[in-house]
Every structure is written in structure tokens, then in C-alpha cells.
Amino acid sequence: MRKIISFMHISLDGFVAGPNGEMNWIKVDQEIFDHVGKRISRGDISMYGRVTYQMMESYWPTAADQPEASKHDIEHAKWYNQVHKVVLSATIKSEGLTNTTIIADNIAGRINEIKQQEGEDILLFGSPTATHSLIEQDLIDGYWLFVNPIVLGQGIPLFVNVKDKIQLKLMPASQQFSCGVIELNYLVER
User: Fold this and answer.
1) I need a labelling partner for 120 at 20 to 30 A (CA). Which of 42, 71, 113, 143 fits?
2) pTM for the complete prediction?
3) Where do the Bacterial bifunctional deaminase-reductase C-terminal domain residues begin and end (predicted)?
4) In this predicted model, what pLDDT tens digit does every residue of 86-121 receive, in sequence order?
5) What stretches of the chain show up as alpha helix (H) in DSSP?
6) Cα-Cα-Cα-Cα dihedral of 120, 108, 9, 37, to 10°?
């Protein structure tokens, strides 16, 4: 059975974005890009909330075609264009979208159907609102967190309205990057 793994950059004090959605505090470099690229290259489904999906769609489909495209832009654009995208949104319409499934209702039922299919883990990228919804419905099976060396003091937290404890098991794939970011991989213990 597939697992949903939430992929998030997070501040040391637990925020995934600033108060207005700012992400300019996130540290990324080629070392992190290479590491993430290896992990996601095995993925065949990526999941997004509406806002993150629209942000991704505005850049990645043509990022590799730009004259100044970096190695990361070329590699990630290729992956993004090939991976099947699942978007949680009540407002986006599926007409005209390629390789994309929109889930507007019966989220738990539809996601559980996808989880039953053969394939790799489903990577939920960013998307704090969608992540909060999936946490409330106990649909997230793991967290792939990139802890950035910063305390924001305020912003959008990763965990809100958690009704029951979420017991986690740290996986050995965790590591530290030279820019000070620490990757932590947790599986939800059920």
C-alpha cells in the first residue's frame, strides 16, 4: 500500500511559512536539490493543495526551457512534467489538465483508493492547508521534514487542531546538510 509522505521545510519553532505565507527563509542549495532529486525521482504521484499547485504550475512546466535554467530546474521540470499530480481543491476544474487528478470531495475515500494502487509513496509537497486537512483525517503516513536553522516566532504552523497524539518513528535516512538544514524522516506509528 502506498503511503502519503508530507514533504515540508520547517523552522526550528515549527512553522512552515511566515504569517503571510512567506518562504524566503527556507535554505536550499545544490546539495539539497541533489538529495531531494534522488528521492523524488522514484515517485510517481505528487500531491498538492490548490495554492501550491498553482504556484508549481506557473513555473515548472517550462522551467527547463529557459535560457538560464539551472541543473536543478532542468531535472525537476522533467520530473514535474512526468509525475502524476493529485490536487486537493474545490475550485480548480480538471478540464484541460494533463496528468492531473483533482479531488474536490470525499477526500478520504478518494485518497484511500489511490493509496491502494500499486506504486511508490505519494509525496505531498508544501501545501499547509491541505496538510492540515489530511492530518485531521489521519491520512498522512510520514513526514519528510527539512528543519531550517531559524526561529520565525510566528507564521503558519505544521501542526494545528491535532485531536490525538501522533506517534512518530525516526527513520535512519535523516541527515545534516552543509547549509545547516537537517532532514528528519518520520513514519507515523499506527
Assistant:
1) 71
2) 0.91
3) 2-178
4) 999 999 988 888 899 999 999 999 999 999 999 999
5) 30-40, 50-57, 60-63, 71-82, 107-116, 128-136
6) 20
Q: Residue 77 gets which letter from DSSP?
A: H
- Three-state DSSP string of 91-137: CCCCCCCCCEEEECCCHHHHHHHHHHCCCCCEEEECCHHHHHHHHHC
Domains of the chain: 1-7+39-145 (3.40.430.10)
Measured at the CA of 41, the angle between CA 79 and CA 45, to 5 degrees, comes to: 70
Length of the chain equals 190
- Look at residue 7 in the predicted model and tell me its pLDDT: 95
Contact 5, 44 (CB under 8 A): no
Q: Quick one: CA dihedral 60, 157, 169, 177, positive or negative?
A: positive
Note whether 79 and 37 are within 8 A (CB): yes
Residue recorded with cell 498538492? 48
CB neighbour list of residue 23: distance below 8 Å, 6 or more residues apart: 9, 17
Q: Which three cell numbers mark 102?
A: 483533482
